[in-house]
Design goal:
This protein is an alpha/beta fold. The protein is built from 14 helices and ten strands. The protein is globular.
């Protein structure tokens, strides 16, 4: 997402959501309210890679603790005992040290021998082994969860994405295939203080996401970013596997695996996921280095360098969103990792943007750039509903198109092999709506039509496809 143009808190669709995920995770468990077990400046231990939990329904595990008392259908399991119980080291001596009211209440209920509400899957506590064992012991779900969590083998429901119906009459106009090089998947669970963030299989079915890219005459493929906290990694892997199985060739998944709290990048955990799922992920990212959770993280840190080494070994494209202070460190990375492909976006507003577009393409063959949300930011950033977005697109269409052609045409035509088209969408559920996609798509085609003919197909889809081949 464009950093300066976007209001605070709404910049970078999944990156913004990731900020909220940090808060939600720290509030709701996993690595959440159990944080008191370690000093504030010490990172929690990272769990070893476990067997991949899956779901026959494909539904994501919910982090919510809401309970239904009316229908008998509930997302929690409760236990009640009347004698003192062994907490297996999960709870502190005093519940008062737990900062989160929800976590404190669970602790108090446990110690008072009252009914305790547990998450729907004890695997949610994969980052806290003691609490996971306690949850399993109390709810007796360890075996049930393992047995019930299997990937659906049902036949995929066919997609029916119709041909694009143009709303405008721009000429010249690009009519070939497109490849979306910047696309954010829905979240893994409902984020309480950001109800707009869509959840996959709840607000947006995975089939609907995959079907956006089923018409090969339209947007034929996508770099799909899965931004996930480490304790929810398994369900994201399963979703990516299921989509590839049912709709092969429609999506090219990227993974960003973040640990909370502490240093957000843990290379050993990332490597373990990649080893267990060889060939599934095509890239790593989006690395959102402007987020508060990345404060103090430099793109050239030792852990980051280890990540780039892992990316090179696993043939991953690394998608990066930098900050104003990252110029020297990122250039050092480009120099030291010439065999790792780096895809940058949203640098047009950095104070050193002229360096990016003036020298990086000449000096570093492994450097590529995605021109995506900046194309339609004047309609996307203010809009909060589908109707609002469409109205803004109609109102500002030609003005936006003229401005973006003036801004980007010469840059793309100078380096036609290094720029990629994308959308950077995913903040609202309506961003996955086929009608909304049609506006993103038609604007992209109108913009591409203004480029020199030698650059059109490269920017539209061939450069993205080339990166997949170069991996």
């Amino acid at each position: 997402m464009n950093q300066k143009a976007m209001p605070a808190g709404r910049h970078g669709f999944s990156q913004f959501i990731l900020i909220v995920i940090v808060g939600a995770v720290l509030v709701f468990g996993g690595v959440g309210f159990w944080y008191y077990q370690k000093p504030a400046n010490q990172q929690l231990p990272v769990p070893q890679t476990e067997a991949l939990p899956t779901s026959s329904s494909g539904e994501a595990v919910s982090a919510s603790t809401e309970q239904s008392n009316q229908s008998g259908q509930t997302n929690q399991k409760t236990t009640s005992k009347t004698s003192a119980r062994d907490d297996l080291g999960c709870f502190p001596p005093s519940c008062s040290v737990i900062p989160d009211p929800q976590g404190k209440q669970i602790c108090l209920d446990w110690k008072a021998n009252k009914s305790v509400t547990w998450p729907s899957s004890c695997g949610y506590f994969s980052g806290q082994p003691a609490c996971q064992k306690l949850c399993e012991a109390e709810t007796k779900t360890a075996t049930q969860d393992t047995d019930s969590q299997t990937v659906s083998t049902s036949t995929a429901v066919p997609c029916n994405l119709a041909p694009l119906q143009r709303q405008f009459s721009n000429t010249p106009y690009y009519s070939g295939p497109l490849f979306d090089a910047h696309f954010h998947m829905p979240q893994m669970f409902k984020i309480p203080n950001n109800p707009d963030a869509p959840v996959i299989d709840e607000d947006v079915p995975r089939r609907d996401v995959a079907c956006l890219f089923s018409n090969k005459d339209r947007i034929k493929n996508v770099f799909a970013f899965y931004g996930i906290p480490i304790n929810l990694k398994d369900q994201a892997v399963v979703i990516a596997q299921d989509i590839e199985k049912k709709y092969p060739g429609t999506m090219s998944p990227f993974i960003e695996l973040v640990t909370f709290p502490g240093y957000p990048v843990v290379p050993s955990s990332i490597n373990a996921v990649l080893i267990a799922n060889q060939g599934l992920f095509k890239g790593y990212g989006e690395l959102s280095l402007y987020l508060p959770h990345y404060n103090g993280v430099d793109s050239n840190d030792p852990a980051m360098r280890e990540l780039y080494t892992i990316a090179q070994k696993n043939h991953l494209i690394v998608m990066v969103h930098l900050t104003a202070s990252q110029q020297q460190s990122f250039e050092k990375v480009l120099q030291d990792f010439p065999n790792t492909i780096f895809l940058l976006h949203a640098a047009e507003d950095l104070p050193w943007a002229s360096t990016v577009f003036g020298t990086y393409f000449d000096k570093y063959p492994n450097f590529y750039y995605s021109v995506d949300i900046d194309l339609v930011k004047d309609a996307v950033f203010p809009a909060t509903t589908k109707a609002d977005f469409i109205a803004r697109m109609k109102q500002n269409w030609q003005t936006m198109l003229n401005a973006k052609v003036a801004e980007w045409k010469s840059k793309i035509e100078k380096y036609p092999n290094r720029f990629l088209w994308g959308t950077d969408r995913g903040h609202y559920a309506w961003h996955y709506d086929p009608e909304v996609e049609a506006y993103f798509e038609e604007f992209g085609r109108a913009f591409i039509g203004q480029l020199d003919s030698a650059a059109q197909e490269k920017y539209a889809h061939k450069n993205a496809e080339s990166l997949l081949q170069k991996r």
